[in-house]
Amino acid sequence: MKNYILEGCVDSVESAIIATKGGANRLELCSNLIIGGTTPGKGLFLEVRKNCNIKTHVLIRPRFGDFCYTEHEFNIIKEEINMFRELGANGVVIGILKPDGTLDIERMKELIELTQGMSVTLHRAFDVCKDPIQVLEQAKDLGIHTILTSGQKNHCIEGKELIGELVKKAAGEIDILIAGGVCDKVIEEMYPATKATSFHMSGKVVRDSAMLYRKEGVNMGLPSQSEFEIWQTDEENIRAAKETLEHIIKTE
């Protein structure tokens, strides 16, 4: 059977443990998945490593929003790569664009030098770049190992034509990791269309808070988001995706 990656995208220790039990064979650890993910803290990383025995890649994203960073933000990214390398992370998930939508190659080179042999994933900055084929070739030249993408669409099924093209042009030199709405049913559709064998998913469900007393009319953030809803990975969602991926690859 071909090798495959089922990466659980998690932002809590609980979700990391659940994803591992469900059959994920790698984790992407972040914070604040509700806003697309930001850099996790040291304490979260250490607690995940204490409780999970699979490879863990760390998202390095200092804030919500675009991927055009100030000098201060760039310095933060460098410090965080150094920190997580020293803590034993298996990889980092990074990306910087210039204002014109091209990959910031000079800054990316500087970051990759800091990784000192860690796995490097170009995150979904790729999905908002100007020319994905050009960036794919640049990523190869930089020695990046993985591109995380939904095919420049909100959902990977909408982007499957581009993803299929990326897999062909990658030619085994760089892994195309599919993101954006991934579940068992999506894998069933995406594999025949793209031949990709790497998938990234949160498998999340919304769980009710343990709080019994609930103060009304006070919001810690956006009024549209309830403080009493917890996003958490669901073990069955991960397991179903794993079983589907293994079955498809085995019978190919």
Automatic annotation (TrEMBL):
It comes from Mobilisporobacter senegalensis. GO terms for molecular function: copper ion binding. Belongs to the CutC family. It is found in: Cytoplasm. GO terms for cellular component: cytoplasm. SUPFAM superfamilies: CutC-like. This is PF03932 family protein CutC. Transmembrane segments: none annotated. Keywords: Cytoplasm. InterPro entries: CutC-like, CutC-like_dom_sf.
